[in-house]
């Protein structure tokens, strides 16, 4: 699911990326867009930010470089999980947080979010 998200961001498939985010994750991603204004339509503002997110700095690269990351150090706790996304070249290591919503995992803090 993490790799699906990073591939969607790198491929500018905004709707796919936003569907993999919790409402908190959508807000975090939306806030990376310099034109962000709070909105009742969080999915629309998320999609606008997701289309620009491939250029977000992460480690020594950008989200575009994380199209096929290694996912490591997965730590599952009741109701959530944490993991690291890694890339060898350029060197990238960034943490992510996930939350369980029903029977699906959603990113509540996606990679590239300061």
What would you say this structure looks like, in words?
The chain is α+β, with helices and mostly antiparallel strands and 114 residues long. The protein contains four helices and six strands. The chain has helices at residues 2-10, 14-19, 23-30, 42-52; strands spanning 57-58, 61-62, 70-77, 80-87, 92-101, 104-109. A four-stranded antiparallel sheet has the order 3-4-5-6. The longest helix is centred in the middle third of the chain and has 11 residues, at 42-52. The radius of gyration is 13 Å and the shape is globular. The mean pLDDT is 89.
Helix and strand layout, with pairings?
Layout (H helix, E strand, L loop, with lengths): L1 H9 L3 H6 L3 H8 L11 H11 L4 E2 L2 E2 L7 E8 L2 E8 L4 E10 L2 E6 L5
Antiparallel strand pairs: 1-2, 3-4, 4-5, 5-6
Features:
single chain; 114 residues; alpha+beta; 4-stranded antiparallel β-sheet; two-stranded antiparallel sheet; 6 strands; 30% helix; 32% strand
What's the gist of this structure?
This protein has 114 residues and is α+β, with helices and mostly antiparallel strands. It is built from four helices and six strands.
What count of helical segments does DSSP give?
Answer: 4
Overall helicity: 25-40%
Side by side, the strands of the main sheet go: 3-4-5-6
Q: What number is the mean pLDDT? A: 89
How many beta strands in the DSSP annotation?
6
Overall 3D form: globular
Strand content bin: 25-35%
Radius of gyration over alpha carbons? Answer: 13 Å
Q: Topology as H/E string?
A: HHHHEEEEEE
Question: Residue ranges: pLDDT <50 for 5 or more in a row?
Answer: none
The computed structural class is alpha+beta
Let me know the largest β-sheet: 4 strands, antiparallel
Measured distance between first and last alpha carbons:
21 Å
